[in-house]
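Collaborator request, handled under Task 6.
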Amino acid sequence: QVRVKGMVFGQQAEHVRIEDSIIGGSETTGIQLANCQAELVGNFIHDNDHGVTVAGRSEVTLDHNIVTRSLFEGVVVTDHARAVLVSNTIVKNGGGAAFLGQAQAQASGNIVGFNQRGFVVAPSSTVTLSHNALHNTDGDYFRAGNPHSPAPELKPPSDLSVEPQFVDLAHDDFRLLAGTSLTQVGGFAYLGALAPFQSSSRSR
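Structure tokens returned to the collaborator:
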């Protein structure tokens, strides 16, 4: 429950847990982790060049975070890092999440929308996608390159191509509207970080 204006940086740290915090306004990265073991849970990460960067041989879980208004990608997993992205809302960024280098990652139950790009995956990385909801302006799935190339074949059958309906997208109220179709999907009570409007008092 801290507020940080600028970057949170960790290197060679273990058993790190950053929870329910507001981190933003960095001219580089909001949270940058190198060779760390960490959990990021329920944070609001906003207005950075990159939202979260996971590098080196880090092992990081991102759970129920909101990552928004990054100039570039909301989340970058690179080098030999391992990451699990579950139930995050990654919206209004240059890109959603990029998996580069020898990264190994799982991404499930996330909302990745209103970015230029959704998921960017390097041929050298290993990524498992399931039960995500995507809606991005230039496309949802890309192979990393210069430039990135569309790769619709990366879409798994369980991912949804649907515009998420938020309470107030313009003012960063990313609760899902009542009656959303993004509930009871693949074992998730709801996709993304925040519960639908009618149950927001019980689950945030």
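The cover message to the collaborator said: "Confidence is low (pLDDT under 50) at residues 199-204. The longest strand covers residues 29-34. Please let us know whether this matches your experimental observations."
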